[in-house]
Amino acid sequence: MAIEALNPDGLPKPDAYRQVAVATGSRLVFLAGQVARTADGEPVGPGDLAAQVEQAFRNVGTALTAAGATFDDIAKLTVYVVDWQPAKMAEFGAGFQRAAAALGIQAVRPVTLIGVAALAEPDLLVEIEAVAVLP
Q1: Widest CA span in the chain
Q2: Is residue 7 predicted with pLDDT exceeding 70?
Q3: Is residue 123 part of a domain?
Q4: Domain that includes residue 76, residue range
């Protein structure tokens, strides 16, 4: 495997993700931010953060597959959420859990969640970028 995920001593050890990813592969895969759209570009879950998180992760999975990668190959995720507040964590988590169950996601690599004022289109609530490393 090209990625080793760690929670080193001296840093908090969150259950939801790992603090460090050590990549030893040689092929990098950079995904554009994935949002809650179907393959036809139709919106999914207007106003529903959990539904949009689930669809965005499903789209990340589709993009990874196209590159010959899986979620196990992800070195880093960046998640942008409109008007982020800690109170939204339960809804975000629900969407992630549904996607994880459907996609077989076992562990989340290092992730950064960034609250933003808006995304490219007014109905979008979340956008997810990923960097993967393949052998």
Answers
A1: 46
A2: yes
A3: yes
A4: 3-8+25-134
Asked if the structure places residue 16 within a domain, the reply is: no
CATH number of residue 103's parent domain? 3.30.1330.40
Cross-strand partners of 111: 77
Q: What is the pLDDT of residues 74-123, one digit of tens each?
A: 999 999 999 999 999 999 999 999 999 999 998 678 999 999 999 999 99
The separation between CA 31 and the C-alpha centre of its own chain, rounded to angstroms, equals 10
| Residue 14 structure tokens | 């969150």
Residue 13 lies in a domain: no
- Residue 25 CA, chain-centre distance (Å), reads 20
Q: For the residues 11-25, what does the mean pLDDT come to?
A: 90
Rounded to 5 degrees, φ, ψ at 68 are: 80, 25
Please report which confidence band the pLDDT of residue 1 belongs to, taking 50, 70 and 90 as the band edges.
low
Backbone angles phi, psi at 129, to 5 degrees: -105, 155
Q: What 3-state DSSP class applies to 3?
A: strand
Share of residues in the chain with pLDDT > 90 (%): 86
**Whole-angstrom Cα Rg for the chain:** 15
Query: Is 70 inside a domain boundary?
Result: yes
Number of structural domains in the chain = 1
Q: What is the distance between the alpha carbons of residues 59 and 34, in angstroms, rounded to a whole number?
A: 6
